[in-house]
Amino acid sequence: MRDDTHPNLLSERFKGYRKWVILFVLIFVGALALYRGWGATQKKSGKRSFQTEIPVQISPVIRKQMTYSLTVTGDIAPMMQVDLFPRVSGYLERIDVNLGDSVRQSQVIAQIDRTEFLQKVKEVEAKVAQAKANLSELEAGSRPEELRQAEEALRQAQSRFDNAKLHRERVEALFKRQVISKKEADIAEMDYTVAEAQLAASQQNLKLVREGARQEVREGSRAKLKEMEALLAQEQIRLQNTLIIAPFQGEIIRKYIDAGALASPSTPIVNLVHTMTLKIVANVLEKDIPLLKPAMKAKIQTEAYPGKVFEGKVARINTGLDLNTRTLQAEIEIPNSSRLLKPGMFARIEVVLLEKPEVLAIPSNAVMENQGEKFVYLLEGNKAARRPIVTGIEQDRFMEVREGLKEGDQVIVRGQEGIRENTTIRVIEGS
What we know:
By secondary structure, the chain is α+β, with helices and mostly antiparallel strands. Among the domains are: 54-65 and 357-427, conserved putative lor/sdh protein from methanococcus maripaludis s2 fold, CATH 2.40.420.20; 71-77 and 272-355, Efflux pump adaptor protein, beta barrel domain (Elongation Factor Tu (Ef-tu), domain 3), CATH 2.40.30.170; 120-236. Helix content is 37%, strand content 34%. The chain is built from 5 helices and 21 strands. The chain has helices at 7-52, 115-140, 144-176, 182-211, 215-240; strands at 54-60, 62-75, 77-84, 90-95, 102-103, 108-112, 243-245, 250-255, 262-263, 270-285, 297-302, 310-317, 327-335, 346-363, 368-370, 373-380, 383-388, 390-395, 398-403, 410-414, 425-427. Strands 2, 3, 5, 8, 10, 11, 12, 13, 14, 18 and 19 form an 11-stranded antiparallel sheet that branches. Strands 7-6-4-9 form a 4-stranded antiparallel sheet, with no helix packed on it. Mean pLDDT is 85; it is low at 1-7 and 42-50.
């Protein structure tokens, strides 16, 4: 029987195992080295492929018509809007309009009770008539019968004077002859003096009757008449002010009180708006101010009428900027004869500020910027070439190119973020 535990036999078996282990280790190490070498080669090869074949999309430089527009949003407002107030106090007798009614210019909207105002006008009219009568009497002078009475009074006074004079002369002669007493002579002298005074008074009265009233009396009467006429005009105005009149054509959009209420000059009656023409206030950026001009056409769109464009125009431009927003206000007027647009609607406004026919243009996403310099990458062969450019206006994802490119140049529009000058690129299709 064979003995496997013999020392020589064990030694031979151990040597055989060691050869196989060594061979296996050598094969494993060789395989690992080959694998690592192959992996490194693949990495370098992949890196070179990425560096030399960056996929990009391109677009040609074209010529097209471009416009630069001011686009703003705002609320539609009426051209005119006022609260109507009475000019005098009193109870509101009637209101002739309702909410939503259209009114004409100068149409009566409401009326204050006129009873007291009418009575006051009649009272002052009577005073004016009296003042006119007084003035007419003064300017017409004395009546014929008054003149005749004055002349008759003068004749009687003259006769009495003549008699008194003759009697005095007789009495004086008798007194000198001492036929009569001193007392009788004094009585005759006194009668003469009285008759002389009466004659003078009658002469002055006839003169006044013939001349009429003094100038200052007539002027005072005229002034009184003017005063009464002014007072009458004032009361007539107050009477007219009991009517609340529409100052312009428009619509009633608010009604504050009803008939029977006590109104005063601080109580609004209704709110009136003019909607035949509407307006929108647009805030214009400082850079767009030189391009904006009066009478420029505007396009207005609203959410209430999707797809419908309303025409308007720039009516007024402010002369000063708002210091808080650094914008300039411009008013855009919109004809609204169809009454489709309503005050308070939200609108989008577009005003074409500049039109340029046949300018060089490229997609806006092709333009890159670094430290204030704008540039693009061109396709030259299979390389990327950086080209600085000067841009102009932008419209619908296109940018005007003023300098740096020519028509037909191929600019990179996608993928340019990861490339540099002379980078190898590969053009791929796409939109």
